[in-house]
Design brief:
By secondary structure, the protein is mainly α. The chain contains seven helices and no strands.
Length: 173
């Protein structure tokens, strides 16, 4: 988690925004995935641990989409609440596409039988349950965490990486 925090710190250039991503989505997704271990659907083994690490990356990506877009919207002059509302609404489609691709792509691993099925079931259950439930929590809980912990970015100027396009097209002259 510390390594992920440091990478997110380098991405955002802020101490608060990585906390918003990590606290707003990751713990709830991990809890959702681990509930299935608690109820006996799978065991905690190396495959389920790999699934949890993959889940952290995918759920953090969803949080990064919302937080980055909300920060950019604030820099364009929107208030924090309006920016996070617009970010959650605008980034919903890419988040759902990632979630559905992950869930449906790993669904066969949940139902597979035969030799070595326990290993495949473990990684499938972790990813399918964590992504499905974690995405709902991300869309609901992350904006609340953003409102509590994120800094106000209005008035800041964005430093865009070389070769990247702006969020909105420049007005024609």
């Amino acid at each position: 988690m510390l390594l992920i925090y440091l990478v997110l710190f380098a991405h955002f250039g802020s101490f608060r925004d990585p906390l918003v991503v990590l606290l707003g989505s990751v713990p709830l997704a991990l809890t959702a995935a681990l509930l299935f271990t608690f109820f006996g659907a799978t065991t905690m083994n190396i495959y389920s641990q790999i699934g949890l690490i993959t889940l952290v990356g995918l759920i953090a990506k969803n949080g990064i989409l919302i937080v980055s877009f909300a920060n950019a919207m604030q820099r364009e002059g929107l208030a924090k609440v309006d920016a996070v509302r617009e970010a959650a609404k605008t980034r919903l489609r890419p988040i759902l596409m990632t979630t559905l691709a992950t869930v449906f792509g790993h669904m066969p691993l949940v139902f597979i039988t035969g030799a070595g099925a326990e290993a495949r079931n473990s990684i499938g259950i972790m990813l399918v349950s964590g992504m499905a439930i974690g995405t709902v929590f991300t869309q609901v809980f992350l904006p609340a965490v953003y409102m509590l912990f994120a800094a106000d970015h209005r008035g800041e100027t964005a430093v865009a990486p070389a070769g990247s396009a702006s969020l909105r097209a420049a007005p024609a002259e």
